Amino acid sequence: MTELNASEFRSLITNTFPELTASVFKLATKGWDSLAVDVDDRLIFKFPRTPGAERALVREAALLGLIRPSVSMAVPDMRIHDGPPMFSSHAKLQGEHLLTEDYETLPEDARQRLGDDLARFYAELHDLDDDRMRALGAGPILPWQSPDTVRDKALPLLPSELASYAETVIRDYQALPPDPYGITFGFFDGHGWNMAFDQAAGKLNGLYDFADSGFGPLHQEFIYSNFISPDLTARIVSAYETLTGRKLDRRRITILTGFHRLSELAELAGDPAFIGAKIDSFGAWAVATAYAG
């Protein structure tokens, strides 16, 4: 779709929702796939940017229709409007992104509650019927860059002290056997930028952006909370083990986390706007794991 200005968004939305004519409209996010508009801090409208993004938004809404009544965690109740242009709407989950500095200020009981809540969400999500999810359009999650591509594109961008660590991560990743729990339907995007967190109450109000959900290796589900804190991931993993009886491989999660960050760096190696942040992300993980020499 062509880029729209604020007044055009207002017209498109109020044509379908005339009761919002006097509302306050603001651009919420300008993502890769969709533009999101916040109305009165209580409604979110998403406008896909491409035909592929349209199909992904329809699929996300269909998947959420089954996920929402199956999990304890609040997720968007998304509706599709045919337009043209096609767009979605849902009530806004109230809360802010959960960043590392926010997590570090939480008291012990709030950290544990968060870990328990996310573990329960993953346990419930992983218990969904695979055939039903496939019938709604769920497919494989997007693959990472290959080890050879990571070596070619990511390693030359790293300072020497991180390059040796990166080579170790790549070798360890290549040596991993298939996931012992195989492939499962999951979120695969559980970082703090997809969370509606009430910092004052220390409580997670919900999760959103299920566009990247699909079928992937079960252990990969648990790497994204490391963007917030390895402490949170450890709590999620322990609680998940108690709920499901599955014993997770913490070393595997550590290796996957490191390789994922290298894969992101390799994927964006040609875009100077992102390189610095991706190098910093990998460096932070090296420090967090004391994996580097």
Summarize the structure.
The chain is α+β, with helices and mostly antiparallel strands and 293 residues long. It has ten helices and nine strands.
Task: Give an overview of the whole structure.
The chain is an alpha+beta fold and 293 residues long. It has two domains: 6-91, Phosphorylase Kinase, domain 1 (2-Layer Sandwich), CATH 3.30.200; 100-289, Aminoglycoside 3'-phosphotransferase, Chain: A, domain 2 (Alpha-Beta Complex), CATH 3.90.1200.10. The protein has helices at residues 6-16, 51-67, 100-104, 108-126, 130-135, 147-153, 160-175, 230-244, 250-267, 272-289, and strands at residues 25-30, 34-39, 43-48, 79-81, 87-91, 183-186, 195-198, 203-207, 214-217. It has a five-stranded antiparallel β-sheet. A two-stranded antiparallel ribbon has the order 6-9. The chain has a two-stranded antiparallel ribbon with strand order 7-8. α7 (160-175) packs across α9.
What are the salient characteristics of this protein?
about 290 residues; alpha+beta; Phosphorylase Kinase, domain 1; Aminoglycoside 3'-phosphotransferase, Chain: A, domain 2; 5-stranded antiparallel β-sheet; two-stranded antiparallel sheet; 10 helices; globular
